[in-house]
User: What shape does this take?
Amino acid sequence: MKKKLNKYHTLYFDKYFPYTNKKRSSKKHFVTLGVGANIPNERKRFEKLYLYIKRDKLLSFVQSSPILKNPPFGYTNQAYFYNTCIVIKTNLNPMQLLRHILKIEKKFKRERKFTNSPRTLDLDIIFFAKIRVNKKNLTIPHPNYKDRDSVMIPLSFIKKGKTNEAIHFYSL
Assistant: This one.
């Protein structure tokens, strides 16, 4: 199913987007990831990502938002993006998680040709529990997330509070 929000934004409701996992995880950190792609078969790739995370021993899938189709920013001479937010739980620390999601991007054939270039999969840590990080290669919460429709619209579908203490902490 799809729902057109306006001239530039369309929401897609697929099998796993939105989705809430009813099983509890014993992992300790709630993490919100921004997911994006604009190389064809994006929605199918998101489904494969969901299945990949479900099998990943280091991550537990908690919740996802619908998928948002929206215009690119930065480098605008490219296809529209598909974006979603997912909530996971992990016992990894922020730097370990960053390394882990970079490996996942690589498995999904992510190439970094130039800043804001088209991509098969982009995974960004938006929130990590109640932790703030300000390092050269990692900033949490993700910089400028509040200014991006690609994050804020999907994030508005994520349940706050006990389901995701990180979002509750940053009180959108």
